[in-house]
Amino acid sequence: MDLEFTEEEKAFREEVREFLKEKLPARLSNKVRNGQHLKKEDMEEWHAILNARGWLANHWPVEWGGTGWTVMQRAIFEEEIAKAHAPRIIPFGLSMLAPVLIKYGSEEQKKHYLPRILDGTDWWCQGYSEPGAGSDLASLKTQAVRDGDHYVVNGQKTWTTLGQYADWIFCLVRTSNEGKKQEGISFLLIDMSTPGIEVRPIKLLDGDYEVNEVFFTDVRVPVENLVGEENKGWTYAKYLLTYERTNIAGVGASIAAFEQLQQVAKSTIRNGKPLSEDPLFAARMAKVEIDLENMKTTNLRVLAAAGAGHAPTAESSMLKIRGTEIRQELTDLMRRAAGSYAQPWIEAAFEEGFNGEPVGPAWAAPVAGEYFNMRKLSIFGGSNEVQREIITKAILEL
Hints:
By secondary structure, the chain is α+β, with helices and mostly antiparallel strands. The protein has helices at about 5-25, 25-35, 40-55, 70-85, 90-105, 105-120, 235-250, 250-265, 280-305, 315-340, 345-350, 365-375, 385-395, and strands at about 125, 145, 150-155, 170-175, 185-190, 195-200, 210-220, 270, 275. The longest helix is centred in the C-terminal third of the chain and has 29 residues, at about 280-305.
């Protein structure tokens, strides 16, 4: 793979930058830059701006609204929107469900759901993890029993990100208890307004309500909402998880975060000299920079595989492990750079400051919240320990 940018790719980068200067609202980028909580309407606004340009689903096939971009163009786009402090593109409908529907869904499902994902009609969340079935996802217990032309769903999902905003949830449910536990799982699309669904938000360490518990009590789901074949959901789940893990790695976000760390280290004076000249801190920065450069190359390999129609396996797991470790290290270094300003979460101070003024340097405001929030990355989407097992089995063909 040629990692040098062509003249066309350089021109594309400038096109993206000009678009961001013109179309990215300053109030949204300022929120992201300052680590403030984004509301649903903030995220929807950014999605609508990208969709109007035709760039929202840049990884979809062209016939369904994709851009036809090359691997390098997608990597450039991801990097530039992160550097511009744009809100993240919410992945659940766009980057997780959509690839499953495109590959395994019926024509009716694709024609109905894909346009609604693009135009923002439907906001999706993911119903995978359960109490006692997180990293060991195949142990899930949420039941879906066939009753005529409906499934009746009972059970509980947890850690459902942004589920409080969702119109729909794509769920793994157990439709059979025969054979191996992976063989009795199906993939259902469930309308969140269906009677019997209860959503309970969970408050996190950073003060936000990002994740939820979702309870299903005799929820009736039309049979036509089954994706693919009954009891084949484990295959679809694994396919989806390769896309989720690539997204969790957050390559563009890490590139932007490292550039900010470099600026902070140069401007922060500790013991009479810039923090960038402290031997221990400089050594840790050098190591994370090397890891980041290696991850960028791996990311291009994964994108190339996806662009060729292949779901990456071991590479996706490698990217998830290294990407999450890098993002955690970057937030730890920022926390250390902030020193005494990296205080535990004080929501009033964070949102308004004391007497309307920021508490310490402006860049320090979100440091503690981001540090705590990033601890989860090595666990969700399949823990890093599980990813190492996947890599081992794939490479050794166990």
